[in-house]
Amino acid sequence: MNKVFFLTGPPLSGKDTQGKLLAKKIKGKFLVTHILIDRFFKKQKKGYVKIGKKVFSIKKEIERRYQGGLYSPEIVGYVVSEKIKELIKKYNLVFSGSPRMTEEAKIEIKTLKELGIDFKVIALKVSEKELLKRAKKRSREKEDNPEIVKKRIENYKKYVVPTLNFLKKRGYLIEINGEGDIKEIHKKIIASLF
Fold first, then answer.
1. Which of 23, 72, 101, 165 could in theory staple to 30 by disulfide, Cβ–Cβ 3.0 to 4.6 A?
2. Is residue 22 within 8 Å of residue 186, measured between CB atoms?
């Protein structure tokens, strides 16, 4: 049976880098949550999306993301769950950037349990000072603007940290120091999983 791994952490913590390395190691498929959601939004013809009984404005969701906020958890949970259902029979999956909110985590966990799939959430721990240093160095996207990065870090503390605590209490979370040499961090992740 294939497995699912989630990489989470603050902005610029190295989720994508470590996710790609992990996917390569386990011969799995690497998926970036915000890219999946961007593609999902592009397929919607009406300017909004309905999930369950809730209706979400795509424009507002995109604006929130580019101002340093997070997509609504119902959307992320739905998109990630659908992608798991679509691909899990063929591949091990590595998601970068999810789960971020507790509601989102609950939706994804429900899907994984219904499908009987083993999963782990790997949280990269990186200091705020290091994150701001990386933002300055990278500055390739509008989200790397120092003010937006600070807002993203605030949102991480406000929404993601409680989610990590929720996952930790349930035994789903593995915490890894995300500072230092990329290969060493990768080795720590592999050692913690296998």
1. 23
2. yes
CATH code for the part of the protein at 4-193: 3.40.50.300
- The low-confidence residues of the chain, meaning pLDDT below 50, are none
Count of H-run helices and E-run strands, the chain: 9, 7
Q: Give me the torsion for CA of 23, 25, 28, 31, rounded to 10°.
A: 0
Place of tokens 């390569």: 24
Chain-centroid distance, C-alpha 32 = 7
pLDDT digits (tens, 9 = 90+) for 129-179: 998 888 877 766 666 677 778 888 898 999 999 999 999 999 999 999 999
Cβ 112 vs Cβ 77: under 8 Å: no
Query: Given the structure tokens 């959601």, which residue do they identify?
Result: 37
Element (H, E) at 29: strand 29-32
- How many residues belong to the chain? 194
Helix (H) or strand (E) holding 171: none
Indicate whether this model's pTM tops 0.70. yes
